[in-house]
TrEMBL record, chain A:
It is found in: Membrane. The lineage of its organism: Bacteria, Pseudomonadati, Pseudomonadota, Candidatius Mariprofundia, Mariprofundales. The keyword Lyase applies. One of its GO terms (cellular component) is plasma membrane. This is Formate hydrogenlyase. It is a multi-pass membrane protein.
TrEMBL record, chain B:
It is a multi-pass membrane protein. The chain crosses the membrane at residues 6-26, 33-54, 60-83, 95-116, 122-143, 155-172, 178-200. This is Formate hydrogenlyase. InterPro entries: HyfE-like (IPR038730). Signal peptide: none annotated. One of its GO terms (molecular function) is lyase activity. It comes from Mariprofundus erugo. It is found in: Cell membrane. One of its GO terms (cellular component) is plasma membrane. The keyword Lyase applies. Keywords: Cell membrane, Lyase, Membrane, Transmembrane, Transmembrane helix. Coiled coil: none annotated.
Automatic annotation (TrEMBL), chain C:
It comes from Mariprofundus erugo. Keywords: Cell membrane, Membrane, Oxidoreductase, Transmembrane, Transmembrane helix. This is Hydrogenase 4 subunit B. The keyword Membrane applies. The keyword Oxidoreductase applies. Its main location: membrane. GO terms for cellular component: plasma membrane. One of its GO terms (biological process) is ATP synthesis coupled electron transport. The gene is hyfB. Residues 130-420 form the NADH:quinone oxidoreductase/Mrp antiporter transmembrane domain.
Amino acid sequence: MSSILIQIIQALLLLLLAPLATGFVSTCKARLQNRRGAGLLQPWRNLRKLFVKEVVIASHASWLFRTAPYVVFTATAIAASVVPAMLVDTPLSLTADVIALVALLALARFFLALAGMDIGTAFGGMGASREMTFAALAEPAMLMSIFVLSLSAHSTNLTTMITHTIHTSFALHPSLAFAMVAMLMVAVAENGRIPVDNPTTHLELTMIHEAMILEYSGRHLALMEWASMIKLMLFATLIIDLFMPWGMAMQATPAALAIALGLWLLKLAGLLLALALAETALAKLRLFEVPEYLSGAFIIAFLGLLSYYMLEAGV
Amino acid sequence: MNGTLVQQLVDGLAALMLLTSFALLAQHRMISVLHWFAGQGLLLAVTAAIVAYGTGSDELYISAIMTLLLKGLLLPWLLWRVIRQLQVHREVEPLLNSSLTMLIALGVTLFSFHMIQPIEKISQLITRDSMAIATACVLLGMLMMITRRKAITQVIGFLAVENSLFFAAIGSTNGMPLVVEIGIAFDVLIAALIFGLFFFQIRTTFDSLEVEAMNAHLIHKDDDE
Amino acid sequence: MNNIGAIDIALAASVTAILATCSPLVVRRQQHLRAIMCLLLAITAALAVAAGISGLLGSHGQTTLPLGLPWMPMHVRIDALAAFFLLLIGALLLPAAIYSQGYLRHVKQLIPMVVFLPLFVLGMIGVVISDDAYTFMLFWEVMSLASYFLVTFDHHQAENRKAGFIYLLMAHLAGLLILGSFAVLYAASGSLEFQAMRDAPLSPVWATGAFLLAAFGFGTKAGVVPLHGWLPDAHPVAPGNISALMSGIMLKIAIFGFIRIIWDLIGAGDFQWWWGVLILAAGSSSAITGVLLALQQSDLKRLLAYSSIENIGIILIGLGLAMLLARYDQPAMAALGLVAALYHTINHTLFKGLLFMGAGAVVHSTGTRNMEAMGGLIHRMPWTAALFLVACVSISALPPFNGFVSEWLTFQTALLAPQLGSAMLTAMVPFSAAMLALAGALAAACFVKAFGVVFLGLPRSDMAIHAHEIDHWMKAGMIIPALLCLLLGLLPVSIIELLDGIPQLLLHVSLTESVQTHGWLWLTPVHASQASYSAPVALTGMLIIGGAAFLFLHPKGHAVRRSTAWSCGTPETNNRMQYSASSFSQPMRRIFSAIYQPEEQLHTERRAHPLLTTRVSYLVHVHDLAVDKLYQPIANYVLLQAKRLDRRHQQDIRSYLAYTFYTILFLLALLSVQQSAMEQRNQPAATSQSQPPATLPGLTSGQTGTEVRR
């Protein structure tokens, strides 16, 4: 039973810490740009404000527009609860393997894009079109980089993959390095971060994610925003799980869990700091350079696969 | 296959070698092509040094230093000067669609992997795994020469082929005899110098560095005569 | 077996279908005719389902019908494979029959439909239960011909007639190739019965010949790229219920034939490694090409037709993987790939049937297939919209619906496949999995477009404004497959257990043990530590979280305030400012321009002042490269030859007589030559037995001499 309890705590932690993670990135960015920033808790304050505000809906919006935030939020939340953060072997991790995880995120995206198209303005359609286009290119790259790992672990089950990585003696694995680079590139794209999309933009012509949720307000907007924060958290945790799981708790003992929690937060902070640095240093890509960026990620992931076969699989 | 640290390092470098070959193929801007080319030279030098450490051969150390100086620094610098003076910054429209080129490149890599596998089985060397990658890099360099229009990128493709051959040499036989290597190094250097001179000549004669322009000119001339 | 077996039920289904075909002889009133046909078809479907399920549960059987040629009676037989496809036919035919009751209400000329639709169904059932090549081909042709008449149901439009003609042509080409494949098998076994073909040993060359003929034949019928040219023309022009059946079932019958000949008759033991690679490559290219072209369509039914090509590709990826694995002695993994392919087959039947029925409803209610004239239908047709959405989610391979299960199984087959014979093959498998991922993601984009443009946003035309909801029959017909989509998504373990007879039949392995180690709730293709997926748990979790969020957040009692949408401050948005179908796919068009080679025409009209744009028109045409580069040249060549022949025809009567004269002379000459050759052959054979060899030369020459004189 304790593992179920830990599972629930872990899922709640992911959901609740997600706004903090977003706040952390924007604070880091602010510091890097010599600003003070709004503070770590600002996303939380935003969400709280949105939850109590009145909802205003576009006049043509249908029931789909009103259900979409719930679908998007729940699909993302379920996906997040499947990802192990501290304890490697959680009961829910059987629910979905990595591929199912990607599909859950795709479900969220599907409804997000439909909601964008529902209001019948140019922005929504534009956002939906771009989001689906780029997601279509990002998904193979992401799966390819996951394949590299699952081929060596002979599994797509996250728990088994993590255990495999922890138990193999540390060695230089060029394939893993490739896979990780590809995964990082995809994660940036999937989360609508610079250089692919700018989460803080207010210039309609360049935005993707914001364009789709332009018409949302109040609790609907809060759910949408929260879902995208969870997604960032999820990707960061997933990258930690897949590529640097060392220190995660194999057994549910308090000491191991405490160490795992501490390490997880530390790794998370490291990744998010790297994101903030990248966002500060890089400029946003032109829209039609994004496909090249994503196909680059795919090529790198495929190179990872090839070098796995060439160098590591053994003849 | 977790061999010794040396083998792991060589494997990692081989993977990076493959990456640089792909990157060379994917770049559009001259200056970034040059950066990757210099990076490749650097990688070669490091590989040579590591294999030298692994096998304890002093000759390889010397060739490592030579590679570093020649391929990591001198050649890129020469080419950089040429580019700056001739004012060519971008590769115009490559002959093939870039994603198609990439797909072909992946296919070529897979193919060379397929071809080399039986050979790798025989070899006992610590670096045998990298043979397939070296072969792939040779083919990728040639692919670069085929798909690009500018003479400079073609020369870089040529030099990349040479780099991969060197890599193959380290990988398959722990390096060539030093004398041969020095000879090749000088050949390459002189070839590069001559290419450099040629670029200026070509530019003044044809007003362009595009190979097609030269062809067109030639045909045109034939017609005139 | 004394009690009624699956085979009897299946025969009863065929009889009902025949009855339905004959009903116009008895019934005159259109309304009654429609009701009787739909009722009989529904009974046929129910019987097919019953036969399928009892067949899958183990009631196999075979019988010889007192029909057919005197020396060649019809053999019919039900094994697990046939039973599965019977189930598949019934599963879509039942809702389609109910749907037709509403859909055909306003059709004036019912007779062709009443005659050919049941014949079409009969053909499909017959193909599935046939047990000899003669029966197979007979019913195959019945199916092809009947469907030709159904495609040209609205034959008043030239476009439909042309599509029908191309369809007929390709269907016969396919038939010819399949016949060739049977001929090879017949030559090897000396019998038309399947059992003999199964038992006969095949040399690798003959096996390859049979494989290639069957692969191309069934590939043509299934619409595999580049043999798909007929499909996007033929499927859209048929009436909605027919499109559903054609896309949903008929393409699957081609898959059935493929499995029957290649897996069953040739047998997994004869596979060569490149067969699997060929099928895998064909599958990958079909999946990608199909979905890319689907994305660019603005004709709703054409979009769905191209998406069928994609799904056939996905099925073939599964089959190709299975063939490779079977070749390299991995029967358990091969079984997984086979089951994945079959699972996707029935999935596609359900959601594509549903999609075509939905499209039929939309076309019925708006009067156009053009998506650019639709929009906002979710307000006018809430039921259709909801059901169509279910199908869109399913086909986009999103959990918890069924499309995801089969794609997930295919992924597992690819990923858990151990090392194959050569490294190149081993590395190709994940690559094809990546192509599958790309196809899946593009399909999601495609169906966001389809649903978004048709049902969401503002109406783009008057027709869309005045659209109306469909009647209860059509609704009922669409609800069934929608529920089945969810059911197949939630209970994959039970379904795979039901399918288990097929891998047992073809590969002699059972999947049941590995799949259900964790009970019905958890789908574990090999072992839970390798991969597992549980749709019920995910769905329950989503319902709990979503419900909690809704209860917690949703304030009770007061209505939500509505306001106009943000339009950058301009007074008001109108329906022409929305993203249209072609603008949605514009980024794709640009990214994949090498494949599409779009022809774009942008025309801007400016009056009075260069800054005052009065009218902008944008025309884009996307090419189907296979049609342009493969079909067109062949068609042009044939036309050219026909023209040449035509020129010869433009002469006076005497030359025609001369032609006839020459022909008769030629034929007579041929006849005499043949006769002499035959006698020459017979004589030595006859003499060599009776006469000693020494006297043979003189005798034969004498005989030949008399022949010539005569």
